[in-house]
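Let's see one such:

===
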Amino acid sequence: MTSQVSSPAEPADETVVGEQRKPGGTKDVRRLDRVIIRFAGDSGDGMQLTGDRFTSETASFGNDLSTLPNFPAEIRAPAGTLPGVSSFQLHFADHDILTPGDAPNVLVAMNPAALKANIDDVPRGAEIIVNTDEFTKRAMQKVGYQSSPLEDGSLDGYQLHPVPLTTLTVEALKDFDLTRKEAERSKNMFALGLLSWMYHRPTEGTERFLKSKFAKKPDIAAANIAAFRAGWNFGETTEDFAVSYEVAPAAQAFPVGTYRNISGNLALAYGLVTASRQADLPLFLGSYPITPASDILHELSKHKNFGVRTFQAEDEIAGIGAALGAAFGGSLAVTTTSGPGVALKSETIGLAVSLELPLLVVDIQRGGPSTGLPTKTEQADLLQAMFGRNGEAPVPIVAPCTPADCFDAALEATRIALTYRTPVMLLSDGYLANGSEPWRIPELDELPDLTVQFAQGPNHTLEDGTEVFWPYKRDPRTLARPWAVPGTPGLEHRIGGIEKEDGTGNISYAPANHDFMVRTRQAKIDGIDVPDVEVDDPHEARILVLGWGSTYGPITAAVRRLRAAGESIAQAHLRHLNPFPKNLGAVLKAYDKVVIPEMNLGQLATLIRARYLVDAHSYNQVNGMPFKAEQLAAALKEAIDG
């Protein structure tokens, strides 16, 4: 994570720091402290790749950054239509930032649909770069434009840059042995080159990337590099772009260390591999591909050299069944999915509760119900994670707060699973999974020791003096049962979904035993050692804003804005949602009003009201997109004044 200490508030708009004349040139260079850029086009226009490359170069330059990829659920939506628009937003700055930004300062629109879908988010005065080649009469009518927005005055309030990107790209590649259609595919690289010139981004990394990506097709690599350089040169020579911009590295925003740009799913995958190494256990992933969790399966499949085994099952139930079998066999077992998959896995999660085996269930939440919005974000699986199983089947819940924090959350979920012999739900979401930010690579001595002791022999003495192994004889501190690897002599024991007898693990239908086992399993979860929740309250505020998961960035940005305006407001954020931190009740009762923003209809607020009898106020959004800082700041200001 980037530093959260002594950072300036995120301003609502870009801030001009200064202007200077470019040495030996004629164009002005304007220095900014932050910029928000959005690339938008058809899902086949390469907007995600363009944004990802711009982000990588920005990270290597040393800026703090936050990204928001946004793409359709269809594999290939109809070209030129509003449902087919794909976008990538990047916010980068010379200081610590927390969100992808509320509104873009620059919109790159590759066609009329991209302009139409995004123009409402673009503030007046912002720059809009449009690919004029795509603004044909038919293409405009397809999205409802009766006249050209480039000519009818509707864009007069913006700094409009009409650029024939397709024509310029084809002209730049005329010496290559490519068809026109093949040449047109490189127009995203032309746009990337133009924006790289415009914001003084490094170029070497992108050229290396293209050579590597198309190593088996050197002609295609050379063509993409030529288009990229042509875009850069166009910015340098055209009169339409009289100003370029500089955003200095965020030198004071980061603690000393080695950093890399990382997405939430990649950080989670790295966290799982690291956890397996720190536990000295092989990692087994049993998974079925599902958006937006599939990237974890893809990434872990690359790391067999670290003892990782990935199993792509035929369905969700088989995926978690294999993972639970691996847990029984002594592996660090993981299954990854999103909300619909959790529904299918619920019976096996209950079995894991009964067997009391360590298992990580990673839920990358998305919009629901049912198939819902596969590529959009939501936080609506909290109650499912808490109660979505038959019977009393309590499961710990851990939620990361930023893309980089997914690494630490994976380690924390592993600690709980291994220490307490329980399945653990890890709740990320699409916003964290696909978004990215700088991540400080930890030193080895900073990582927790997660090693476990397997049962080695008898652990109980009968009245006649016989030494036996009891699979449900518990550690008095953690209430965890022993973990006995199959094949260990003398540790034979029965497993299954029918209720176990305390101690022996034999099948038992006795009412008193069932009551005892239910209460013991609940006590084990209630007794999990989790850190106290920390409260950020520099001015003894009357109002507390409480969040969980990916709302951290927008909430913190909103709180900074309010404090910069002289308001007093406290903030706390939950990582552990079951059990709650032990001091949470006292924290909540210390404030006159508690506001809980969530990307659902008030699930944490429901739990807080029920558990602590606090009249928590919900502020909810379920539109598939993360909160905007300005929107939250306005809602919290209303709560302060109310």
The longest strand covers residues 34-42. Residues 1-14, 19-24 have pLDDT under 50 and may be disordered.
